[in-house]
Amino acid sequence: MKELAYLNKYILKYGFRLSLGVIFMIISNIFAIAPAQVVRYAFDLVVDTLKTQTILQESAFYDQYINDFFQVVLLYGGLIVLMAFLRGIFLFFVRQTIIVMSRLIEFDLKNDIFEHYQKLSLSFYRKNNTGDLMARISEDVSKVRMYLGPAIMYSINMVISFVLTISLMLSINVKLTFWALLPLPLLSISIYFVNNIINKKSELIQQQLSTMSTFVQEAFSGIRVIKAFVREKESLSQFTDTANEYQDRQLELAKVNSLFYPLMLFLIGLSTILTVYVGGIEVGEGAITPGVIAEFIMYVTLLTWPVTSLGWVTSIVQRAAASQKRINEFLNIEPEIISPTEEPFEIKGDVKFENVTLVYPDSGIKALDHLSFEINAGKTLAILGTTGSGKSTIANLIARLYDPTEGRILIDGHDLKKLNLHDVRSQINMAPQDVFLFSNTLKNNIAFAKDDATDEEIITATKNAGLWENIQQMEYGLDTIVGERGITLSGGQKQRTTIARAILGTPKILVLDDSLSAIDTKTENAILNNLQTVMKGRTSIIISHRVSSAKLADKIIVMHEGKIIEQGSHNELLTIEGHYKSLFDQQSKSSN
Ligand SMILES: Nc1ncnc2c1ncn2[C@@H]1O[C@H](COP(=O)(O)OP(=O)(O)OP(=O)(O)O)[C@@H](O)[C@H]1O
């Protein structure tokens, strides 16, 4: 239960609302209890009137007497209606304070979790799948909200109505109170157990629902593959299987639910019977008036919901504690990469790797092995190499998405780890190898990192990225929606969109990670030429598998298994009979 203590700071923040809620709850309870006494008076009045009626029947006051009787009964009736109305109004205020408080905390909590998620390193995202991250920010937070809203509200209500009602009952008749309340703890305990069964079954349903949604999501995003391999029938039958399982689990829950209400009604009925039976004996002995029986039946009805809620609230609190535990697991993870300073830093563009080794924390793979190289501001570095040789890892390290396991990376002679992280990242733009576009317009995708980008700047960026001609042919131009992950664009168009995004705002260091691979050599040459103008005086790092992307660079390094095996300019490397030369020969042959 200690997990829920994390939420106390939020409860304190909205303490005023909660206190108001408690006051409204007390008032609404008073208006709920008071009618029972009015009923007793009315009941006793009816009994008395029935007794005296026969005596007065012959008297001259009889009509007046009956008239007065009806007026008093009417008054009692009016009082009951008025109190029910006031009770309703205050219950409205209770919900407006306590339930609204829970919604506000839910909002704060979701924002805090999202903000924290964003600070966590990439290795965290490799270890945890998206479904799990989503579940904690949505379903788990919803369960926690059930504790903050309904559970807190009904617990307060329970305490107030127990104290007020039971003390009133005891002050009237102890024996009758004992018998009337006897079945209620049983009700509470059975509801707790039934609720637990319901929760377990609901969880199974939830799991099946998420299996079903994952399946549907995959089926639709992979629809091209499904159609191309004519697997629609198999896909449908798999869906039917999961849907059947979902239906079975729902039916099981429905069975438990249908047991739940009869059980509740049985125990409440038992309470009423006991009240009438023991109350009757007490009336016979002259200990109470008959009106008390009616009053007690009303009290029992009033206590039914708080007693029921006791079992319900207990299981809500248990579930909320389990959910908060899962949320805390993530909230307690410290971001591995943090900015050590707030001091502003302006990048010139010198990049130096000093004996850098990187072992990926999650896979244990040594991606870079004592790597050293440097590139001066304003120059272009091309990185070539076999697959898995560590090229993208260099890009990840320059943007400080990971920190080296050994060695240092220097930007303008300063250790990257000691610089203002926000300033560094905002001056380094990267077009990553795994292209990611948001399902938004092309314009918004390109202007992603520069909110104030003008249309002119965006158009210039698309021209330099060799994308403008394509955009002009599109019906909606820059306002074309690219679909989920850019599904409506070709591979090359997607790559060029990310290049436009990266060069917009002319970064101090530009990293293109295999961003020209799906582009024909003619367009590639045009883009590389444009880059020379756009990136004049700025540092560019071009990662590629193709010699054509590298040949214009001031310096080329060739990687293999995390190490540099060759380095120099295009002409220098052609003089060595090595990997670069053989790549050059192969690629020139295939392009002829
Ligand atoms: N985020 C990561 N977590 C764990 N291991 C990784 C991660 N990224 C890459 N690796 C591993 O590190 C090694 C180097 O990968 P990297 O992506 O840097 O190679 P690359 O030269 O860019 O390859 P390619 O040319 O195929 O893109 C590979 O063995 C890869 O499996």
TrEMBL record:
<feature type="transmembrane region" description="Helical">
    <location>
        <begin position="296"/>
        <end position="317"/>
    </location>
</feature>
<keyword id="KW-1133">Transmembrane helix</keyword>
<keyword id="KW-0067">ATP-binding</keyword>
<dbReference type="Pfam" id="PF00005">
    <property type="entry name" value="ABC_tran"/>
</dbReference>
<feature type="transmembrane region" description="Helical">
    <location>
        <begin position="178"/>
        <end position="198"/>
    </location>
</feature>
<dbReference type="GO" id="GO:0005524">
    <property type="term" value="F:ATP binding"/>
</dbReference>
<dbReference type="InterPro" id="IPR039421">
    <property type="entry name" value="Type_1_exporter"/>
</dbReference>
<dbReference type="InterPro" id="IPR027417">
    <property type="entry name" value="P-loop_NTPase"/>
</dbReference>
<dbReference type="InterPro" id="IPR011527">
    <property type="entry name" value="ABC1_TM_dom"/>
</dbReference>
<feature type="transmembrane region" description="Helical">
    <location>
        <begin position="69"/>
        <end position="94"/>
    </location>
</feature>
<keyword id="KW-0812">Transmembrane</keyword>
<feature type="domain" description="ABC transmembrane type-1">
    <location>
        <begin position="20"/>
        <end position="319"/>
    </location>
</feature>
<feature type="domain" description="ABC transporter">
    <location>
        <begin position="351"/>
        <end position="586"/>
    </location>
</feature>
<dbReference type="Pfam" id="PF00664">
    <property type="entry name" value="ABC_membrane"/>
</dbReference>
<dbReference type="InterPro" id="IPR003593">
    <property type="entry name" value="AAA+_ATPase"/>
</dbReference>
<feature type="transmembrane region" description="Helical">
    <location>
        <begin position="20"/>
        <end position="43"/>
    </location>
</feature>
<dbReference type="InterPro" id="IPR003439">
    <property type="entry name" value="ABC_transporter-like_ATP-bd"/>
</dbReference>
<feature type="transmembrane region" description="Helical">
    <location>
        <begin position="151"/>
        <end position="172"/>
    </location>
</feature>
<feature type="transmembrane region" description="Helical">
    <location>
        <begin position="259"/>
        <end position="281"/>
    </location>
</feature>
<dbReference type="InterPro" id="IPR036640">
    <property type="entry name" value="ABC1_TM_sf"/>
</dbReference>
<protein>
    <submittedName>
        <fullName>ATP-binding cassette domain-containing protein</fullName>
    </submittedName>
</protein>
<keyword id="KW-0547">Nucleotide-binding</keyword>
<keyword id="KW-0472">Membrane</keyword>
